[in-house]
Specification:
- It is a single chain.
- The protein is about 80% helix and about 0% strand.
- It contains six helices and no strands.
- It has a single domain, classed as Formiminotetrahydrofolate cyclodeaminase monomer, up-and-down helical bundle (Four Helix Bundle (Hemerythrin (Met), subunit A)), CATH 1.20.120.680.
- The radius of gyration is 18 Å and the shape is elongated.
- Helix 2 packs antiparallel against helix 5 and helix 4 packs parallel to helix 6.
- The protein has about 200 residues and is mostly helical.
- The N and C termini lie far apart (about 45 Å).
């Protein structure tokens, strides 16, 4: 059953089982989907307020782009579970290396998508309907958690890959992407924190 077809209870039970699938990469993608969903919500609520009429077109675009990201992350969650399932089936065969590389693709795409979604969140954080402030912050935090989780998943799989050049280059790229994501998320979180704290 696809993730999007499961209830929250069903998904949480599947994670809590003694099966390694769904695992960390799937969880990272789900966290990213949650973050993107909050962006969509805030953008749609804000777009409906008369005082934001001048920004309505931008807000509608942000909502549309974030919703596209949400759907991408849900697809990546399913792809991550499927990729690890394929690896587990051949883990002790000559095909294991190729299958392990396949496990890298979903979390790498999640990290890339998170970077784009955070830029939408930053754009949104410039002006939004104030009662949704905490939701903007939660979007940033969820996306940051997703970025960190995706990187951890990639690192864990890289440790088992023998191609040192590929491993070094991939590790360098994800460290750079994570640092950028963390910086944007921190910027958004601190701005929201200043906005809501008493």
């Amino acid at each position: 059953m696809k993730l999007a077809e499961q209830s929250v209870e069903e998904f949480s039970l599947s994670v809590a089982s003694d099966s390694p699938v769904p695992g960390g990469g799937t969880g990272a993608a789900v966290s990213a989907a949650l973050g993107a969903s909050f962006i969509v919500m805030v953008a749609r609520i804000t777009a409906g307020k008369p005082e934001f009429a001048a920004r309505k077109l931008d807000l509608v675009r942000i909502a549309s782009d974030a919703d596209e990201a949400r759907r991408l992350f849900l697809r990546l969650a399913d792809e991550d579970a499927a990729a690890y399932g394929r690896f587990a089936a051949v883990a002790k065969t000559p095909s294991a290396g190729e299958a392990l590389r396949g496990c890298l693709k979903p979390p790498l795409e999640t990290l890339e998508g998170v970077s784009r979604a955070l830029l939408l969140a930053r754009e949104l954080s410039a002006a939004y309907y104030q009662p949704t402030a905490s939701d903007v912050g939660i979007a940033a935090l969820s996306l940051e958690a997703a970025a960190r989780g995706a990187c951890l998943t990639v690192h864990a799989n890289l440790k088992r890959i023998k191609d040192s050049v590929f491993v070094t280059e991939t590790a360098r790229n994800i460290r750079s992407a994570l640092a950028s994501a963390e910086a944007v998320a921190a910027e958004i979180y601190l701005a929201v924190k200043r906005d809501v704290e008493i």
